[in-house]
Amino acid sequence: METNWLDYDWSVMLPEATIAAAVLLLLVIDMLMKKEQDRRFIGLLSLFAVLAAGVAVAFGFGKEQTLILDGSYLVDDFSLVFKLLILGGTTLILLSALSQEKSKEIDYKGEFYYLLLAATLGGMVMVSSADLITLFVGLEILSIASYILVGMRKKRLESVEAAWKYVVMGSVATAFILYGMSFLYGLTGSTNLDVVAERIFEVTRGGYDSFVYLSLLLMLVGFTFKAASAPFHMWAPDVYQGAPTPVTTFLAVVSKTAAIAFILRILRNAYLPGLWSMGEWQDVVSKILIAIAVASMIIGNVVALRQTNTKRLLAYSSIAHAGYLLVPLALFASIPQFIVGNDVFFGSIVYYLLAYMLMTTGAFAVLTIIERDRQDTDIRAFAGLYRRSPWLAIAMSIFLISLAGIPITAGFFGKFYILLNAIIVRNLWVAGIMMVTTVISYYYYFGIIRQMFFRPPTESKKISIPLGLAIVIVIGVIGTIGLGIMPKWVIEFVEGLSWY
Amino acid sequence: MPVTSYLVLAAILFCIGLYGVLTKRNAVIVLLSIELMLSAANINFVAFSKYGLYANVTGQVFSLFSIAVTAAEAAVGLAILIALYRRRGTVEMDQFHSLKG
Description:
Chain A is mainly alpha-helical. Chain A has helices at about 15-30, 40-60, 75-100, 110-125, 130-150, 155-190, 195-205, 210-225, 235-240, 245-275, 280-305, 310-330, 340-375, 385-390, 390-405, 410-425, 430-455, 465-485, 485-495, and strands at about 65-70, 75. In chain A, helix 3 runs antiparallel to helix 10 (about 245-275). Chain A is globular and about 70 Å long. The model of chain A has no long low-confidence stretch (mean pLDDT about 85). Chain B has a single domain (about 5-90), classed as Helix Hairpins (Orthogonal Bundle), CATH 1.10.287.
């Protein structure tokens, strides 16, 4: 049991170490610099650190899974895939933030970058932890850094108010998760997820099953807060609207990915092995998750219909997407040979997260350009975009079509794949609700497209597109269409990984 | 079973905290209520580490971690509240309503 700390294979923590070193270095550099000095290189340095960490993660594939720090830190294919998604999302966000240097969107340049990196670090710790304590610490690194990021524009009332709402709601969610974890620990006497899984089996048979469900429910309350899915999604529209747009993108993409990974890890490693064999999983847990997923899809898509602010609209759309993502999560153990079927379900979750990342960052990048141009995020700001900048309008249409899930885009195939899995396990009414809500979502996505193509522009000036945002949009368009044409590529890669 | 009384205490604290968050108008009280909820979880951890099904010291370690982390969270919360007070000039929660849709 006792291992010398030098004997651990520390090299597997290279990506985290890179990001942590970059955070500390940039913090010190920023402190030592004079106030009026040019801080642009801080953004470039952080971009470089994220790319370096991404390369380090990519080299980790195909190796044996490694467990370090007394079984609390697990580096396996699961965590590597999610780390790549998190780092990819952060790269796109950094690129779009870099070209906003001159605008007033973000006042405190240095802070923005190292807080963003700290939040990314928290997400990475979260996805590769195999222990409740590590999981909690990772979650809090991510959350605390994002509270500050939301309130970055502290001279703007909306930004600070959004940060306040986020910090209150987020802390309540943390309290729920911690309270749930305390019951899980009390029942199993361990914080290690493997030990927890073994003992859950025993205590569920031993008459403590109500406490097992209580701990799971408390954690699910916290999780639905963090992933912005119903029924605890109320903070999302306000916070998305008030936060600076790059931070909104971060919350919508990276935070959500980390939250999905969190719940996936807890459910799969701790609860599933103990609850599956006697059918409690299918009877109770799966039903709860389906209820959450269905509620998110319905609430997100229906309330989005009456939004006039693009950021709020995208917030409700992200609630709906959280619902779609929860469908495979809810169904992944409902077929008998669940170990065989698992890769298919994880494949659909990862594919959907990738598609969601590309189309959402792209859509927010276009929104950033519009916001710079018009100082407004109302959907009327998109009026006549096709006349003023046809390429931008076409790119935005591709992102919206993908978000709506219309063929040859990544969003279509992601939804199709989830739908197919729902039909395979014969859960037809979930598949039906998914289709109906998707059709409802066409209405509000096409509302923006209608503004861009069929409304006259209020001014005829050309729109200037900064380089960083242009790169993000191009990556987004290529990725969205490429993944839509050749989905096999990603799917085969993901399904070829070892999920256990 | 002695653990029951600790669990009941923690549950009561948690509920008081949640009630405070949902109903109180003063933002500082809301922050205090959140601390109550987190303390409830800590009481659970420490109680379980002594009287749990598999009693061991891990629960106390976890409670130390959570105390440190939630202190950071409270600090950030207060800082944001001060920034908000400077913009708004009040800490009444129902005055914070500029975000609507």
